């Protein structure tokens, strides 16, 4: 099989396409023929060496869709369509940057759909992260105002669509004034240009923000916490800034009294597979339209990562295998 293997941390050119033997599944594992996968920021951070627990060589990739080739337990039938994500995929064991992968059954969900693979490949981690952030972490309610910081990311765009469909008012942010229309077209009622001091803008314009989905990360977290109403919730889900931690974090200074800070991590909390199937049905019915910015081939994986790192995307990047 073809696989893109990372032997050492560094630039996208370090992803080497090579031939490997197709792995064999053991008990509680399934061999999957990978059809497509979405790119994720965490894979760039792993490639750069920011994930200290990841040992090389490693095949990256934290999600995929494909078809079952072999399941020793017989739970999944040959040819069955499945999605897989997280659970150590592409980090503790080899992931989706390949034509085949052996994955634990615990991270696999079956589904039915006639959607093309390039659309299906965009969905698993994106849906899990957005649904979990909005419902498990932020506990959104109809009529609330949600601010999405980092709105032009694939997670931000889908979060706006889902929140709007559930009756929330959505405010999305971008640093690029040219991307305002993209945000409005994908669910945002209003756009704020992120100058790093949103709390000041929000205070001056007397905007009431009930919940904030923080996708930029630690570099803007303090400002986001100052932007939410008393009793509101800020959920840090993304790290577009590529920073894991905050130096000299002082909770009494960062968090407003009687307000809440939480996180969402799809590697630790999994959304039930039935929601993924329901989400696919909504995409099929065109009730939800995930934004796919660009599609690459496996042979173009280095180019795909470079494109994501350039911050040009404004939607999900998908690789067809």
UniProtKB/TrEMBL annotation:
It comes from the Bacteria. Keywords: NADP, Oxidoreductase. Pfam families: ADH_N, ADH_zinc_N_2. Residues 10-319 form the Enoyl reductase (ER) domain. This is Zinc-binding alcohol dehydrogenase family protein.
